[in-house]
Specification:
It is a single chain. By secondary structure, the chain is of the alpha+beta class. The protein is built from 31 helices and 33 strands. The protein has a six-stranded antiparallel β-sheet with strand order 29-28-33-32-31-30, with helices on both faces. A five-stranded antiparallel β-sheet has the order 4-3-7-6-5, sandwiched between helices. Strands 9-8-12-11-10 form a five-stranded antiparallel β-sheet. Strand 30 and strand 31 form a beta hairpin. Helix 22 packs antiparallel against helix 25, helix 28 crosses helix 31 and helix 29 packs across helix 30. The longest helix is centred in the C-terminal third of the chain and has 73 residues. It starts with 10 loop residues before the first strand and ends with a helix. About 20% of the residues are buried.
Length: about 1000
C-alpha cells in the first residue's frame, strides 16, 4: 500500500470473520503488520543469492554442497570440464564419482557422516573424466548447520591440482634420482650447516670413515673427523669463513672410527639461499691415502734407483742418436777419470778406437722396437792411453712415432774377462772369483735349463743354498707354474740359435714362495771342456715393479674418475690446443676424444666465443690462479650454458704451460632462471597496465628477452573470431596482414585431420609452405601424411601457434612465434613456457575487459537511474493533477447530485441517478482510466503498469522495485489476464498507453 509520504509499504493482513447466529458475516476483525523491512531484506537476500550463484558459476573452481548423507545438493557448471553435467550429479552420492582406489580413504576422511561436528582438513582425491583421463582434485569445505546447531551438510570448493601433483611427482622422482646419485657416487659427499654440523653423509663416507649416517648427522664435523692440530682457520666462526671462501680445494687428514688417519682430496663449495640467511657447505672428497702412499713409495724407489745407478759398479750412460753423451754415472766418470762436465755433451765415439767405431754404429742401428736391446763388446781408449775391452748392453728409446730418440747403455770392463778367456781352459777359478764378487745374480745353465753354476748373489736372491740348485732345472725351481711352458719355448729357441737374450723383465718365485721380479740378460760362453752354456745376469727389480704397479693403479683410478665424471674435463695448453678430453667433453663437441686431441680449441667455436675462451684461458695461465666463468656456447647441436672452472697446471719447473678445465652444463638452470625472471617482470608490469595492446606487446617482449624467438605476434579475438587486439615484436612489414594471414592458417590447421601431427602440448607447429602446404596458397594444409616432413631443426617458414583457450574450450586468441634464436625445434618445456605466458596474459586481458565492461555497465545503470527518477517524478506530478481533477469533479458535480438523488419519500430521482453515473464515467475518462485500473489491479500491479508505460524493461522494473525478474514476468501475465488480452498478440506497453 502507499504511505502518506508517497512510499510503497508492504502490509501483512490477518483477519477473522464474525458471524450472527444465522451464520451470516456481520463484520471482520483483523490486524495489519508492516513487513516492508522484511520484504526489503528478502529482496537483498535474493540479490545476494543471485550474486553468489553468478560468482560460483564464473569461478575456475567447482563449488558444491552435499547433505549430511553425502548426496549432492548443488554443483557449479565448472564440473563440465570433466565431461559431467550438474544434472547428472545432483541427487547422487558424491562417492560414485570418485576414482575407485580413493573411495575408501575419502569415505574414512568424511567419517561416513558429519557427526564429528568439526571443521575438516583439506582432502585430496582423484576422479576419472569421460575420456578416461585421471585428474587430481583438492577439496575444502565447511560444515553447514541449521538454526538448532545440527549438522545438515557440507559446502565448499573443489580445485584441480593435477598440474601441481604431476610437479610433486616429478620433484619426488628428481629427489630419488639425486639420492641414488649421492649414495652410488664413489666420492665422499658431505654437507655442513653454518655451525659445521653434518646434514648429509653419503654411503662412500660411511665406507671410508666406518661411521654410519645416523651416528654423525647433526654432529660437529671438526670435533669428530679432524685432528686437533689440523683445525682449519675459521672453524670457530665457520659461517663467516665459508662466506669468505665459497670455493676451496685442499688435501687434508681425516680420522676414521678405528682411529686410522686417511688423506682426502677435498673440493668445497657453498650455497647461499637468497630467501634465508642460512648456508650449506658442500664438500666432495676422494680418498687418496693409497695414492699418497704410492707416491711416497715411488719417490723412495726412485731415490733408491738413483742411488743404485750412482753406486753400481757398472758403467751407465745415456747418449743421443748422434752419440753425444747426456748422462753418465759415477762409475763411468771414475772409469774415464773425468767429471760430468767434461763428459756430458761430448761424442763418446772418440773414446772408441777407429777400427771399432763402424761396428758400434751398425750395432746401434740394428736396434728396433721389435729388438730394442742388444749387447756388444768392443775396445775403448782408457785415460792412460791403454786399450781396454768393454761389454755394453744397449737399449734404444723410441718416441710415439717409433723413431729412436736416444740410447741407454750399461757397460762393464771386460778386459780381465777377455784376458781370462784365453786361459779359461787352464783355470776356472779366475772367472769364478770375478762372478762371486759380482753384486748381480749370475748363473750358468745348459741346453735343458739345468744349473751348472750360481754365484752367491744369485743364491741370496732366491734364498737357496748352492747345492740345492746345481743340477736342478731353473724352470721348475724359480719360475711360476703358469709361465714355465712359454719360457721353455723361448729358452730352447735362443739356445738352438745361439742368440743372446736381451734384457727381459719377468716374475719369478723364491724358495719361500714369495714372488720376485727380476731383470736379466743372457749370453753364451764356451768353457774349457768345449761345452756351450748360457750365462744370465739377474737384477732384483721387485721394489721398482711394485712402485710401477702402484702408480699404474693410481693412474687408472684417476682415469676412471675423470672418464666417469658427469662434467666435461679438458686439458688445454697456452695456445688453445687440446691435450686431453674426457668422453663427456668430446660428446658435447660431437665426436670422440681422439677427434680433438692435438687440435686448436678455437676451431670448434664461433669467432667471438673462441676469443672469449682464449682470453679466460690465458688469463688463468698467466696469473696462475683458479678462474670461474659462466658462458653461453654454441655447439653442433645448439647453444648451451656452462659454468667452467679453469685451474692452471704447473710442471716440474713450476712453469704453467697448460690448464685443466672442468665445465658443468647449467643450461637447464639458466633457462629456468631467465624464464622465471621473465615471468616476474611480466607479472610486475601487468598490475599497472590498462591497455590490452600494450599488454600483448609486453608479452612479446618478454618472450624475446627469454632467448626463445625473434618474431612474435600475439592476437586476441572477439566473439565473431575477428582480431580485436594485437601486440607484436620483430616484424618490419605489416603485422596486421601477418596476423590475419596467420589466423586463416590456424583455422585451416585446426580443422584439418592432420592437426594432431603438428601438436606439441596444446600448441601447433605448422611446417613451412614449401614442405607441408601447396605452393599456391600458404593457408591450406597438406592432404595426406606422406607430405609431412619434420627435421630436428627449425626450418625457415615454420611457425608455432600457441592457443588461448577459454573455459568453454573456444579459442580466445593466439600467440604466434617464429625465427627461434637456437634454430632448434621447440621442446615441450619451451611450449609449456609459452602457453603459461599466454595464459597469464589472457587472464589479465579478461580482467581489463571485465573492468571496462563493469565501468560501462555502471555508467549505463547510473543513466537509467536518472531517467527512472525523472519518470517517477513525472508520474507523481500526473497523480497530483489527477487528484485535483477528481476532487473538482466530485465537489462540483457528484456531491450536489448525490444529495438530491433520494427524495423525501425514499424514492430515487432517476434523472439525478443517470447524471451521477454519467459524471462517474466522465471522471474515469478524465483521469486516464485510473479509477478502472485501481478497481481491477493490486497496488503492485498498478506500479508495474506505470513503469511499463514509462518504457522500462522487465529487468529494469525488477531492479527498481527490488524484486526478481521472475516476479515481474508473473505480474505481467496477471495484468494481461485482468485486461482480457492474455494469449493475444497485443503489446502491453501500447495497450496501457491507450487507456
Amino acid at each position: 500500500m502507499m504511505h502518506k509520504d508517497g512510499s510503497i509499504r508492504w502490509i501483512l493482513a490477518r483477519g477473522k470473520t464474525i458471524r450472527d447466529p444465522d451464520g451470516q458475516v456481520i463484520r471482520m476483525v483483523g490486524t495489519d503488520t508492516d513487513i516492508t523491512r522484511l520484504k526489503l531484506i528478502e529482496g537483498e537476500l535474493r540479490k545476494s543469492e543471485e550474486k553468489y550463484r553468478t560468482l560460483a558459476e564464473n569461478t575456475n573452481d567447482v563449488v558444491y554442497s552435499v547433505d549430511s548423507t553425502g548426496v549432492v545438493q548443488y554443483i557449479s557448471p565448472q564440473v563440465s570440464r570433466y565431461g559431467l553435467t550438474p544434472n547428472a550429479i545432483i541427487g547422487r552420492s558424491f562417492l560414485e564419482f570418485i576414482y575407485p582406489p580413493d573411495r575408501d580413504a575419502l569415505r574414512d576422511h568424511f567419517g561416513g557422516d558429519f557427526s564429528g561436528g568439526t571443521v575438516r582438513d583439506v582432502s585430496e582425491f582423484r576422479i576419472e573424466d569421460t575420456d578416461g583421463n585421471i585428474h587430481w582434485l583438492e577439496e575444502r569445505g565447511e560444515l553447514q548447520r541449521d538454526a538448532g546447531g545440527d549438522i545438515i551438510g557440507l559446502a565448499g570448493v573443489i580445485r584441480d591440482i593435477t598440474i601441481r601433483k604431476k610437479a610433486e611427482q616429478e620433484l619426488c622422482a628428481r629427489e630419488e634420482h639425486l639420492r641414488l646419485l649421492l649414495n652410488t657416487a664413489n666420492s665422499l659427499i658431505i654437507c655442513l650447516d653454518k655451525n659445521a654440523n653434518i646434514t648429509v653423509f653419503n654411503k662412500e663416507c660411511e665406507k671410508v670413515t666406518g661411521y654410519t649416517c645416523d651416528e654423525v648427522i647433526g654432529k660437529n664435523w671438526p670435533e669428530i673427523f679432524l685432528p686437533e692440530d689440523h683445525y682449519a682457520r675459521g672453524v670457530d666462526d665457520f659461517d663467516e669463513w665459508v662466506r669468505q671462501h665459497p670455493q676451496d680445494k685442499y688435501e687434508g687428514p681425516l680420522i676414521t672410527k678405528s682411529g686410522e688417519i686417511r688423506t682426502i682430496l677435498w673440493s668445497n663449495s657453498a650455497i647461499f639461499p637468497s630467501d634465508s640467511g642460512e648456508l650449506t657447505a658442500i664438500a666432495v672428497g676422494q680418498d687418496i691415502t693409497e695414492h699418497k702412499r704410492a707416491e711416497e713409495a715411488l719417490e723412495k724407489s726412485e731415490e733408491r734407483y738413483r742411488m743404485l745407478v750412482e753406486d753400481m759398479p757398472a758403467l751407465m750412460c745415456q747418449f743421443s742418436v748422434s752419440g753425444v753423451l747426456t748422462f753418465v754415472n759415477s762409475a763411468y766418470r771414475r772409469y774415464f777419470n773425468k767429471t760430468s762436465s767434461e763428459l756430458i755433451g761430448k761424442d763418446f765415439f772418440r773414446l772408441i778406437p777407429v777400427n771399432y767405431r763402424d761396428a758400434v754404429r751398425n750395432h746401434l742401428r740394428s736396434l728396433s722396437i721389435e729388438h730394442p736391446i742388444d749387447s756388444i763388446e768392443h775396445q775403448v781408449i782408457a785415460p792412460d792411453g791403454d786399450i781396454r775391452w768393454q761389454k755394453w748392453i744397449n737399449r734404444a728409446l723410441f718416441n710415439d712415432e717409433g723413431q729412436v730418440t736416444a740410447y741407454q747403455a750399461i757397460g762393464y770392463d771386460i778386459t780381465d774377462r777377455k784376458q781370462a778367456e784365453k786361459i779359461l781352459q787352464e783355470s776356472e777359478k779366475r772367472y769364478r772369483g770375478i762372478w762371486e764378487k759380482s753384486p748381480f745374480g749370475i748363473c750358468l745353465t745348459d741346453q735343458h735349463g739345468r744349473y751348472q753354476y750360481v754365484n752367491k748373489a744369485y743364491c741370496r736372491m732366491y734364498e737357496f743354498e748352492e747345492h740345492e740348485l746345481i743340477g736342478k732345472s731353473a724352470l721348475e725351481i724359480v719360475l711360476p707354474r703358469e709361465a714355465r711352458e712359454e719360457f721353455q719355448r723361448t729358452y730352447s729357441s735362443h739356445y738352438r740359435s745361439g742368440t743372446p737374450i736381451s734384457r727381459i723383465e719377468m716374475e719369478t718365485v723364491k724358495k719361500s714362495g714369495e714372488r720376485l721380479w727380476i731383470g736379466y740378460s743372457t749370453d753364451f760362453i764356451r768353457l774349457g771342456s768345449g761345452r756351450d752354456y748360457m750365462v744370465a745376469m739377474v737384477v732384483d727389480i721387485t721394489k721398482r715393479k711394485l712402485s710401477e704397479f702402484a702408480l699404474r693403479k693410481s693412474e687408472e683410478k684417476y682415469r676412471l674418475l675423470v672418464e666417469n665424471a658427469a662434467r666435461a674435463i679438458f686439458t688445454i695448453d697456452f695456445n688453445g690446443t687440446y691435450l686431453y678430453l674426457n668422453s663427456i667433453a668430446a660428446r658435447y663437441l660431437g665426436g670422440n676424444p681422439g677427434d680433438f686431441v692435438g687440435k686448436p680449441m678455437p676451431d670448434f667455436f664461433p669467432g667471438d666465443e673462441a676469443r672469449s675462451h682464449m682470453q679466460h684461458l690465458r688469463e688463468a695461465i698467466r696469473s696462475g690462479k683458479r678462474l670461474v666463468s659462466e658462458t653461453h656456447d654454441t655447439f653442433y647441436d645448439g647453444r648451451r650454458w656452462f659454468r667452467t672452472v679453469i685451474q692452471p697446471l704447473a710442471d716440474s719447473s713450476s712453469e704453467v704451460p697448460s690448464a685443466l678445465l672442468i665445465a658443468e652444463d647449467i643450461t637447464e638452470r639458466k633457462i629456468n632462471e631467465i624464464r622465471n625472471l621473465a615471468r616476474l617482470r611480466l607479472l610486475d608490469n601487468l598490475r599497472a597496465e590498462k591497455n590490452i595492446n600494450n599488454l600483448l606487446a609486453m608479452a612479446c617482449s618478454v618472450i624475446r628477452d627469454s632467448g626463445l624467438y625473434r618474431r612474435i605476434v600475439f592476437i586476441m579475438l572477439d566473439k565473431n573470431e575477428k582480431i580485436s587486439h594485437r601486440g607484436d615484436i620483430g616484424h618490419d612489414g605489416s603485422p596486421d596482414h601477418i596476423a590475419q594471414k596467420a589466423l586463416t592458417t590456424i583455422k585451416n590447421a585446426i580443422g584439418s585431420p592432420l592437426s594432431e601431427n603438428y601438436r606439441i602440448g596444446n600448441s601447433f607447429l605448422i611446417p613451412s609452405p614449401t614442405r607441408i602446404m601447396p605452393a599456391e596458397g600458404a593457408n591450406s594444409l597438406a592432404i595426406n601424411k606422406q607430405q609431412v616432413h619434420y627435421t630436428a631443426s627449425w626450418e625457415k617458414g615454420y611457425r608455432l601457434y600457441v592457443p588461448v583457450v577459454n573455459e568453454n574450450n573456444r579459442y580466445d586468441g593466439w600467440l604466434i612465434v617464429e625465427e627461434p634464436l637456437s634454430e632448434e625445434r621447440p621442446t615441450e618445456d619451451d611450449v609449456f613456457f609459452l602457453e603459461e605466458i599466454a595464459e597469464i596474459v589472457a587472464k589479465d586481458v579478461r580482467r581489463i575487459e571485465w573492468v571496462e565492461q563493469l565501468r560501462k555497465e555502471r555508467i549505463a545503470l547510473h543513466e537509467k537511474n536518472v531517467a527512472l527518477r525523472e519518470v517517477l517524478e513525472h508520474i507523481e506530478e500526473e497523480k497530483f493533477v489527477i487528484k485535483q481533477e477528481v476532487a473538482k469533479n466530485v465537489d462540483q458535480n457528484l456531491l450536489p447530485a448525490l444529495k438530491k438523488i433520494v427524495r423525501s419519500d425514499g424514492t430515487v430521482n432517476k434523472s439525478l441517478y443517470d447524471l451521477v453515473v454519467q459524471e462517474l464515467e466522465n471522471l474515469a475518462t478524465a483521469s486516464g482510466g485510473l479509477l478502472r485500473l485501481h478497481s481491477r489491479l493490486s497496488p503492485r500491479e498498478v506500479d508495474i503498469c506505470n513503469l511499463i508505460k514509462a518504457g522500462l524493461s522487465s529487468q529494469e522494473i525488477a531492479d527498481t522495485l527490488y524484486i526478481t525478474l521472475a516476479t515481474v514476468k508473473k505480474h505481467r501475465e496477471t495484468i494481461r489476464k485482468k485486461f482480457g488480452i492474455a494469449n493475444k498478440k497485443i503489446n502491453l506497453t501500447s495497450f496501457l498507453k491507450e487507456l
